[in-house]
Design brief:
Helix content: 25-40%
Number of helices: 12
Largest sheet: 9 strands, mixed
Distance between the termini: 33 Å
Mean pLDDT: 89
Low-confidence stretches: 3-11, 236-242
Length: 329
C-alpha cells in the first residue's frame, strides 16, 4: 500500500501547533487549447471541491473555439470567491511547454500547486486528499500523484489507471514516465525547485520531466492508490495511461520506436543543463548514461545494469536491454 488511509483527518501539525487544512492554499494550474467541449464540466468540479481555499490560473495556448469565453464567464461568476487569472500561453503547439511555462511563472501565489487537464472531472475530495497526504513542513520537496477512473467522450466509465508497482525513483524515472500529470500536486518547495531548473527546451511530457527532475533532486514522492478524478480518454490525448492489450502493445511499439530514445535523450540533456538541483549521485548516473562511448552491444547493456536503470516491470526492462544491445537506447 503506497498511501495512508483516508480517515477524515482535518488538521495537521506545524511547528507544534494544530494547522487546519483549510488554511492551506492551492493554486490550480489549468492549461487549455480548444477545450470548449468539456471545459465547463472540469470547471464545475473545482467548485464542488470540499477544500475551498484555491485559486485558478489558466494558460490558454491560442484557442479558436469558445474556450476563452467559457473561462471569462467563469471568472465573472466566481472571481469574487476565488482568484481566477487567465494568461496567454507560449502558443507553440506543445501542451507540455504550456504547463511548464505556467508552472514557472514567478508570480504564482504561495502554497501548493495542482496540475489540471481541461477535459477531466475532479472528484470532490481530490484537493482535500492531497493536502492530507502532503505534510506542511516536509524534510524534502514533495510531489504527490494519485489514480483515476477512465471515461469516454460521453462521460461513461470504462476502466481505471494502473497503480505503479513501485514508488518511482530516479533510476526508473530516467527511462519511464510513471506518474500522471493530471493527478499531480506539488508542495511549495517542489514548485520552487522546478522554477529554479526553468523550462527545458525539448522535453515533450511535462509529467515525465517533473518526476525525473524531482526524484533526481531527492524529493519525496507520495504515491496515492486512491482514484481522485475522471480522466477523459477520447483519442485526442497525446499519451494516455496504460491499460489493456492494445495499450500494452502500443507501449511496446513506442519503446521500440525512435521517438522513445529521442524522449529519453531530451530529458537527459535537459537535466544536464541544470545539474545544480540534482543530488551528486544522480549527476554521476546521468553523466555516465549520456556520455558513455558504447552506443550498442553488450557494453551498453552492462552500463544500464551497472547504473541500475530499469523500468517498473521485468519484461519492459528486458526489452530495454534488447534495445540497448541494438543501439536504440
Amino acid at each position: 500500500m503506497h498511501s495512508c488511509s483516508y480517515g477524515g483527518i482535518l488538521e495537521m501539525i506545524e511547528g507544534g501547533e494544530i494547522m487546519p487544512l483549510e488554511t492551506r492554499h492551492v493554486t490550480i494550474l489549468l492549461c487549455t487549447y480548444n477545450g470548449a467541449a468539456f471545459l465547463s464540466q472540469q470547471l464545475a468540479s473545482y467548485l464542488d471541491q470540499t477544500h475551498k481555499n484555491w485559486s485558478l490560473w489558466i494558460s490558454d495556448d491560442g484557442s479558436s473555439d469558445a474556450t476563452l469565453e467559457i473561462l471569462e464567464q467563469f471568472k465573472m461568476d466566481h472571481g469574487d470567491h476565488h482568484e481566477v487569472r487567465i494568461l496567454q500561453g507560449p502558443c507553440k503547439g506543445r501542451a507540455g511547454l504550456n504547463f511548464m511555462t505556467l508552472l514557472c511563472n514567478p508570480e504564482l501565489p504561495d502554497g501548493l500547486v495542482a496540475l489540471s487537464d481541461q477535459d477531466d472531472i475532479w472528484l470532490p475530495e481530490k484537493l482535500a486528499r492531497a493536502l492530507e497526504m502532503i505534510p506542511p513542513q516536509a524534510s524534502a520537496p514533495v510531489l504527490y500523484s494519485a489514480q483515476s477512473y477512465h471515461i469516454d467522450r460521453d462521460g461513461n466509465r470504462y476502466g481505471q489507471s494502473r497503480v505503479p508497482a513501485q514508488v518511482p525513483v530516479f533510476e526508473t524515472a530516467m527511462l519511464q514516465n510513471v506518474l500522471a500529470g493530471h493527478a499531480m500536486v506539488l508542495d511549495e518547495a517542489a514548485r520552487d525547485l522546478v522554477q529554479r531548473a526553468g523550462i527545458p527546451e525539448d522535453v515533450v511530457f511535462h509529467d515525465w520531466w517533473l518526476t525525473l527532475l524531482l526524484t533526481g533532486a531527492g524529493a519525496q514522492i507520495v504515491l496515492d492508490d486512491h482514484r481522485v478524478l475522471l480522466y477523459r480518454r477520447h483519442g485526442v490525448n497525446v499519451l494516455g495511461p496504460p491499460g489493456g492489450l492494445r495499450a500494452n502493445w502500443n507501449r511496446v511499439r513506442r519503446l521500440a520506436g525512435r521517438e522513445y530514445r529521442q524522449w529519453v535523450m531530451a530529458n537527459s540533456m535537459g537535466l544536464q543543463a541544470v545539474p545544480v538541483v540534482l543530488q551528486a549521485r544522480n549527476v554521476e548516473i546521468l553523466d555516465c548514461f549520456v556520455g558513455s562511448p558504447s552506443h550498442s552491444g553488450p557494453a551498453r547493456v552492462a552500463l544500464l545494469r551497472r547504473l541500475n536503470l530499469h523500468r517498473q516491470s521485468k519484461a519492459e526492462t528486458l526489452l530495454l536491454y534488447v534495445l540497448a544491445f541494438l543501439g536504440r537506447l
